From TrEMBL:
This is CRP-like cAMP-binding protein. It comes from Mucilaginibacter lappiensis. SUPFAM superfamilies: cAMP-binding domain-like (SSF51206). Pfam families: cNMP_binding (PF00027). Residues 30-117 form the Cyclic nucleotide-binding domain.
Amino acid sequence: MHAGFEAYLKENMQLPDDEFRLMCSFAVERKLHRKQMLLQEGEICRFKIFVCKGLIRTYRTREDGTEHIIQFSPENFWVTEPDSLHNGTPSRYYIDVLEDSEIIFWTKSDFYFLYEQVPRLKYFTERLISRNVTLGRDRIFSTISSTPEEKYDEFVQTYPTVFARVPLHMIASYLGLSLKTLSRVRHAQLKR
């Protein structure tokens, strides 16, 4: 099992060795290539992913093809499309790979089985969901109330390792800004 995942679990869940081994026994490790698609709009999401190495994004497109990035998932992030996964409904989102990546994933049924066998996993997952709801609300608030400069600063604080790894147009997409506005803000920040 990937050493980064083991360190993450020990730090965040304090799992006993037998529960860690059980989680690993259901996990599937994969190496992914840049631009590989993990989920397309209209498909049903059937997995939970942990990113060991690399970078993944979740996004949605408008009818005109414009992409709106919802989340970047670098190392030690979890990725799924929760509505599709839990309800078995077609996804409205895409999940793809921005850098060659190493992931671990579990199917929905395996993860639910692990909930029953590893009580700390369910508690940990509930904490993650709560944190993600809070982050989502904070992001909505920022989107409707923050200046472009504040949005940029929040992005750099939230994703310090991502900024240098993705093109500016993707950051603009995530922030809901035009590339021109983001370039202006970034240039002004660099002058400070």
